[in-house]
Amino acid sequence: MATSYLQIENLTKSYGDRLLFGDVTFGVYEGDKIGIIAKNGTGKSTLLNIIAGREAPDSGNVIFRNNLRVGILEQTPKFASGTNVIEACLRDDTPTCKAIARYEEALASGDEQSITEAIHLMDSTGSWEYEDRVKQLLSQLGLTDLTAITDHMSGGQSKRLALARVILSDPELIILDEPTNHLDIQIIEWLEEYLQRSRVTLLMVTHDRYFLDRVTNKIIEIDNERIFTYNGNYDYYLRRRQERIEAMEAEMAKIKNTLRKETEWMRRQPQARAGKAQYRIDAYHALNHRKQELHSANTQKDSVELNVKSSYIGSKIFEAEHIAKSFGDKVILKDFSYTFARYERVGIIGPNGAGKSTFIKMLQGIITPDAGVWNVGETVKFGYYSQDGIQLPHGKRVIDAITDIAEEIVVNGDTHYSPMQFLNHFLFSPADQQKYVETLSGGERARLHLAAILMNSPNFLILDEPTNDLDIVTLGLLEEYLTSFKGCLIVVSHDRFFLDSIVDHLFVLEGDGEVRDFPGSYSEYRAWTREQEKKEKSPINQDKSTTSKRTTRPQRERNANKMTFKERKEFEILTEEFDSMTKEKEELDQIFNSGENIDNIVELSAKYQEICDKLDEKELRWLELSEKS
Q1: For all residues of the chain together, what is the average pLDDT?
Q2: DSSP letters along 557-602, please?
């Protein structure tokens, strides 16, 4: 029988009159790798905070096994002011950590006597092996400057340092709160591989679906103030959750059918029921109660309705001509030129500090390049989702903040919403709309940010780390919206599933000012890079020249003017649509030229204009694709 590490007993937590979860009970056993899934605002991080002892429950108990070593990775790590990297890792008050800290201080001072004494202390405590482990781990996590002060570190660097500190504490149970936020993809994959091969027990909250699928062996879902446990990974959870929903819907249909008959019986005159079995009356009330339970547990009821379309976009999007940008010795772009096509979808990836955010800020004119120009088309209407979040004044309620932007929202050219109606589409109930901006959770702020962007019907979306703080349900809906979005798209993201779902190709910023254009999804890119790594390690290829290595560059660079498979399918569909709409337009022309009295002339005229507009749009795209051989 597996050893119990942690027992959660009848845990209940509420804020005011809002219940997050009630009487939650589950266990964590040796070898479990558990992912906690829930919609934003339903208590994921609160549950972890209670388990970690940072927050008190209303009732219930959290019981750890005696002497269990627990490591906790916070969503936003904090370090003592003035601490450097090595000091942050050697925080434990053990002889080994003291010896290593003294040795590093002696090296930094350069004093030979201090260094000699520190070396003797390292020998006597047997600390050399541990120091090697610390430095090796920090190097794997991209932290090579051990004297860097933590006060000046970026969010990604702080997260990596906190991760190293957790791993070095040699925990038996690790609690992770959004571990992939602020980490670049390479570090996420490193962490994924580490957790896969490690025997450590794991309890985490994350929205990274590939991470969940590859690391977890159990999923706990918080839904409608209750928990549901699934003994499998994320893919298994999706299948079993759908089965649960279908079973609930079938039960609801059966109950409604039975209640229809029983309600008719209950409505008869009391005399007609006199003397009849009380159990039937009790069963009727029990059915009604169960119906209410199922109705409130309907997992489909809350969804962000992202049905906002883009405004018209012309054939000229933007051209980058010989763009260069550096910050001191750090080169971000070096002679970058590119012509962006209509409806293009690009993902931007690269290590932290490679210049991904700088790239998209230069495109919008927020940052000025050192050389070169961006030529942006006149019809381009940017919508920018910044990873810094929406900047709204404190002291404002949600409804007032959106009303300040626009008192009436017009989408798709003819649909009018009030700010209150529009916010309803983004899961802000009337009560939520009265919340002050500064009290919103991370997920609520992300949804408000999306609402503020989409209310202007942009035709060119630029999304900088949009997946941070969004729950998995909202992420799925955002992906559906972006898949059908009739505009251009640039996405900076570390979420591999998100990139695979929506982009056609990648700009890979390699950190030296060069941009590699890869034709495919992120998973295809990783498969390609692994293949290149294997070839480079092969003894046959070790003596090849740089010229021969260049022949392994992605096919897109050699066939830039060829249709991709996706473009060929789009071209075929456009041809069919173009023919069908042309035929419909000709039929309307015949009606208008017949000279007969037309009763619904206004309706047909509107339809005719709509067809003409769509034909113009589709013809431009058809011509663009037809130019490719």
Answers
A1: 81
A2: GT-TTSPPHHHHHHHHHHHHHHHHHHHHHHHHHHHHTT----TTHH
The CA distance from 583 to 575, in Å, is 12
For 561-619, the pLDDT digits (tens) are 556 656 666 777 888 887 788 888 888 878 777 767 777 777 877 788 888 878 777 77
Where do the DSSP E strands lie in 95-210? 173-177, 201-205
Question: Which CATH code of 3.40.50.300, 3.40.30.10, 3.30.565.10, 3.40.50.720 fits the domain covering 318-518?
Answer: 3.40.50.300
Cβ neighbours for 326, distance < 8 A, ≥ 6 positions apart? 332, 370, 513
How many angstroms separate the CA atoms of 432 and 436, rounded? 9
Q: Are 509 and 515 in contact (CB under 8 A)?
A: yes
> Which uninterrupted H or E stretch holds 313?
none
Domain boundaries, the chain: 81-168, 238-296, 318-518, 566-626
Which of 66-80, 100-114, 122-136, 570-584 has the largest mean confidence?
Answer: 66-80
**Rounded to whole angstroms, how far apart are CA atoms 450 and 278?**
54
Q: Give the E-state strand segments of 344-446 in sequence order.
A: 345-349, 371-376, 382-385, 409-411, 415-417
| Whole-structure pTM value | 0.71
Cβ–Cβ < 8 Å for 535, 552? yes
Q: Which of 197-206, 226-235, 584-593 is least confident?
A: 584-593
Find where tokens 């790590």 sit. Answer: 77
